[in-house]
Amino acid sequence: MTNSTGTGLRIGYSFWGFLGAGIIDTPDGGRSHRCTLVDALIAAGHEIVFLQANRDFVEAGSDLRGTYQWDERGLPELDLLFLEWRWPIAGRNTTPCGQPGHTCDLHRQQQLLDHYTDQGLPTILWDKDQQLPAEDPLRQRSTVTVAEAALHPNPGAYSLLFPVADEDLDAFDPASAAAETRSWPLVYVGNQYDRDTAFDTYFVPAAARHRHRVCGKWPSTDRWPQVQFTGRIPFTAVDALYRDAISTVLLLPERYTRRGQMTQRLFEAVLTGCLPLAPTTIRSVSRFVPSSLQVASGTDTADRVTRLTRLRTSDKADLLRACADRLELFRASAQLDHLNALLPAATRSVRQLAP
To answer: Alpha helices of the chain — where are they, by DSSP H?
Structure first.
């Protein structure tokens, strides 16, 4: 083990996305929480080396090299490999290098697996999108720890939720947020991926009765001519949109619903004072929102939005406070404790291999 920081570990961190605001044309939800996790790890004494392309610099023109370190082509000495799991995406990362539209995230990930994981280096695989097949041999490796951003992860995996900075939770003032004037009764921010059923069931009927806006990449919308799709917006504009909205609906792919995996849309909405409505089909939904914000159908969603638009400021503040209390699940210091609990198990094999 290198143990270059004394008490901490030298962690190679692989992710395909951005630390800052990035670009508009990206589905990278990790921007909402990646820096929070990385900064917490650094504050805990670990050294972080990013192992994928520096997309902040190359694509977004944001130079963060004075704050963080990258080694996007090399294979530095490490104590631990941490992967935000990448999976095959046809026509993008499965094509030959150099071909138009190709991204090299999958090739680089395989190189890291070959060099580090196959040689026995402890690896934490964060399957944030639940794309690792149940039969994948990596799940059986004694040196690989699989984590998921779910309350009820798949068998053999551990829970590691998307972290929210402690200071953001501590600074949130429900009364002030409830008093803000808002223009939109209903908004949705997010992409279409695997959400058609939830969208049809819970959002479309409410959109027929309320002024609304849907932002994100929705390439197939012909079946919903009555819905107002406005395309992707910059990451920096998400906060402002939520601050101008009364409510949103938490739409999840079925695989998330089954495992109780909540996306960053929950805390993005709550911390801006936008009330999140959650389908009752989400496993452990009461751990995310109070019962008065749970919906069982599209009609239910529409009725709840109507009531929320008429809600007294004090009652709205109470609802926001109840939602904020539930965000304690995601508190960064708590999630860091979960991750730290995995580190000894992940690094035990290295100590056994040490001469």
So the answer is: 34-43, 55-58, 105-115, 166-171, 174-178, 196-198, 204-207, 235-243, 254-259, 265-270, 298-309, 313-326, 332-353
